[in-house]
Amino acid sequence: MSTTDLPTPVLRGAAPAHAPAGTGHLRGTRSFPAEARDALQDTQLRRNLGKATGVIRAKRQAVVDEVPDWEELRLAGSAIKADVMARLPELLEQLEANVVARGGTVHWARDAEEANATVLRLVREAGADEVVKVKSMATQETGLNEALEAGGVAALETDLAELIVQLGHDRPSHILVPAIHRNRAEIREIFLREMPDVDPDLTDEPRRLAMAARAHLRRKFLSAKVAVSGANFAVADSGTLSVVESEGNGRMCLTLPETLITVMGVEKVVPTWFDLEVFLQLLPRSSTGERMNPYTSTWTGVTPGDGPQAFHLVLMDNGRSGVLADPDGRAALHCIRCSACLNVCPVYERAGGHAYGSVYPGPIGAVLSPLLTGISGEDDPNASLPYASSLCGACFDACPVRIDIPNLLVQQRAASVESHRRPTGQDVAMRAARVAMTSPGRFTAAEKAMSLGRVLGGRSGRITALPWPASRWTASRDVPAPPKETAREWFARTRPGQER
Amino acid sequence: MRIAVMTTCLGDAVVPQAVRATVELLERLGHDVVLPPGQTCCGQMHVNTGYLREAVPVVRHSVDVFGPVADGDWDAVVAPSGSCTGCVRHQHAMVARRAGDERLASRAEAVAARTYELSELLVDVLGVTDVGAYYPHRVTYHPTCHSLRMLRVGDKPLQLLRAVRGIELVELPDAEVCCGFGGTFALKNADTSTAMLADKMSAVLATGAEVCSASDSSCLLHIGGGLGRLRTGVRTVHLAEILASTDGSGAAVAAPSRAQSGPAPDVEQEAPL
Ligand code: SF4
Fold first, then answer.
1. Which DSSP state fits B77?
2. Can you tell which superkingdom this protein's organism belongs to (chain B) (predicted)?
3. A400 lines ligand 1 (CB under 6 A)
């Protein structure tokens, strides 16, 4: 009963190497430094972010510390993911066969456009003009809501934070807490403005806000005929899909409507339930800092008389085959979207999620977005993303599946450099530095030239203003004037004949 | 032991006091110190900015200069820098391998196996935590990301500092958070870098310390540059300088260096070899 109307992308290499430009929300329009500069001026944003990430960091650390075999779990998670990537085509075929055997239908989508078109067609076939949605990174990636709207279908986000973003005509700024950049006073204003029938005396008390959202959503849950979800995991050997969440709104979507459409990236498959067990321990502690997430839903095909009577699974590539083919980049597909790396990242904490221009912000986004969509040249905003990190390594330590994000960042920086179509100022400087650094004579000469900088230092020995591009340093930091004598000169003077 | 000091490009040209202190400290502990001629830079700037191909000759040069440690001519190479040591240990072979130069990669690995950051050399290789230093100041210590996460030096610098006489060591809040330097990050993302620096400076100032120490001159340059700009009166001092300081009854005396004052006239009275 499968409608495998497209070749398996990971099997036949038929998918384009990169996700198409112009569809979905994978790439931004401005460079990271430009976006970050604006964000840093928003004092409210910095306060909201600093507070929220601080709280969630502490929670995560506390629950991670109480697991004695956390490192073993991380290693297990990493090994399972490596195994999945090594035999992805085989696992996807197994998943497809089992979904079909349990009464589901599987659709393959090479990219975001095909995924959106498939969902729109299925919604129409179900005779609906409205869908309820479980928060889903995959459909944010494809821009499904906009595509549905263009096709005359209204999509209602039911995750509270996602609803806030949707009602605020805003963009999500965090994988797990899309409205992390908003505080409750701002949320109250959005609700008062956008929710019909809301109590005009609504306060910014969290409980009151949640109750208002609940009343708003309840009506929709009961009337919607079609639901759209993402998936956290798909178990190949049983055909089971799984979504984990905190509020239970997702479970309402997964059980009440007649038709359920799940869109998932092909990398989300795991071989067996035993593997699921590892991730269900790693994910909640890493993401919300809870021992177990309040709702774990699993479903397998359709069950007559119970739950949705039609189930469609859309398996989406959208650039993943290309990433899989990159021996370094492949590890980025191990990501389980827990957002731990965002919460510990000092750059994310200051610049916020919008600065990354993609639905995948933070350290993993800084590598995943350019990997999925490519870097088309020095002016491409993607070219700036891998540099949105000080390479401090906090993301690697936090990642539950041990993705070496710092190494991926360096590799994507190399991709960024290799995309240059004409030599940039940075290229010229780096070449000059390489020339100096491979010849002791030239290196010494360069040091000599630099020590002329002493003049700028004056009597204080500190330089407070330098011409561009070093002015970016002296905008906020002094520079010491170079010393009279280098370390090597000192050594040669004080220990003659002892250089070797 | 016969120990070769990697000056690092920054340590040679901009902050030689950390290199001088490293040499003096190791000599005071009775070791034979060499400063391999012809050394320039480990190539970290190229690697971390994504110039992996430009980095190949720089890496090759570094591996050539420090190759004798792999042949047993020296017992160890030490760098007063966590990030340069991290580059040698975790990036040199990667750069070579990516360029398809397997011979360079294995030579780089052999050199890396005997290259240490200062606190690693002292605690793990030389087995000392009390180096006989005297430093009567209120000090806070910033562990630096690359020492912490690339090298996993753990609390070795603190073990060394705790054994220093006269020191008043105060804990730095949020010590493990990056100071915002990050090499070219400080220039490419100057605004974000400055925001990170501001928070690090607040943490340093909250300790009431008169000295902020670390074992990476580049981070110290960044933090010290910010503290100096704000006229806070807090100075940055490399770990090696603190460990090299004595009360004068021993050999070398390194006064807490005032920011970049150039070689003090009295440093020529060196320890006997
Ligand atoms: S990269 Fe790792 S830490 Fe970041 S979201 Fe993915 S799984 Fe979580």
1. E
2. Bacteria
3. yes
Mutation choice for ligand 1 from A288, A333, A339, CB with most ligand atoms inside 8 A: A339
Domain limits for position B12? 2-125
Give bridge partners of residue A269 from the DSSP assignment: A234
- Nearest neighbour of B11 by CB, restricted to A388, A478, A487: A487
Q: Are residues B155 and B72 in the same domain?
A: no
Together in a domain, B182 and B219: yes
Ligand 1 atom nearest A338 alpha carbon: 8
Q: How do the pLDDT tens digits run along chain A, 500 residues long?
A: 344 344 444 544 456 788 888 788 999 999 999 999 999 999 988 888 999 999 999 999 999 999 999 999 999 999 999 999 999 999 999 999 999 999 999 999 999 999 999 999 999 999 999 999 998 999 999 999 999 999 999 999 998 888 999 999 988 888 888 888 888 999 999 999 998 888 889 999 999 998 999 888 888 888 999 999 999 999 999 999 999 999 899 999 999 999 999 999 999 999 999 999 999 999 999 999 999 999 999 999 999 999 999 999 999 999 999 999 999 999 999 999 999 999 999 999 999 999 999 999 999 999 999 999 999 999 999 999 999 999 999 999 999 999 999 999 999 999 999 999 999 988 988 998 898 898 888 888 888 777 766 666 666 677 787 777 788 888 888 888 888 889 999 999 999 876 65
Is B258 inside a domain boundary? no
pTM (2 d.p.): 0.91
Cis bond before residue A7 (omega within 30° of 0): no
For residue B253, being part of any structural domain is answered with no
- What's the domain count of chain B? 2
Give yes or no: residues A305 and A452 share one domain: no
Residue A281 falls within a domain, yes or no?
yes
Number of domains in chain A: 2
Tell me if A390 and B54 make a contact (CB, 8 A cut-off): no
A475 in a structural domain: yes
Residues 355 through 394 of chain A touching chain B, CB cutoff 8 Å: 384, 386-394
Tokens of A422: 């004409």
Partner-chain contact A430 B49, CB within 8 Å? yes
Nearest to B58 among A413, A437, A488 (CB): A437
Cα A177 to ligand 1 centre (Å): 14
Rounded to 5 degrees, what are φ and ψ at A263? -110, 125
Pairs across A and B, CB distance < 8 A: 222
| C-alpha to C-alpha distance for A322 and A122, rounded to whole angstroms | 28
Domain span at A188: 87-321
Q: Which of A37, A410, A437 faces B40 most closely, judged by CB atoms?
A: A437
Q: Does A339 sit in the ligand 1 pocket, CB within 6 Å?
A: yes
Which of A321, A338, A373 is the last residue in one of the domains?
A321
Q: How far is A2 from chain B (nearest CA, A)?
A: 43
- 3-class state of residue A245 by DSSP: strand
Q: Cβ contacts of residue A327 below 8 Å, gap of 6+?
A: none
- Cβ-nearest to B41 among A397, A431, A437: A437
Ligand 1, atom nearest to A398 Cα = 3
> Other C-beta atoms within 10 Å of A125: how many?
12
Query: Is B50 in contact with A431 (Cβ distance < 8 A)?
Result: no
Say whether both A297 and A159 belong to one domain.
yes
CB contact under 8 Å between A434 and B55, yes or no, is yes
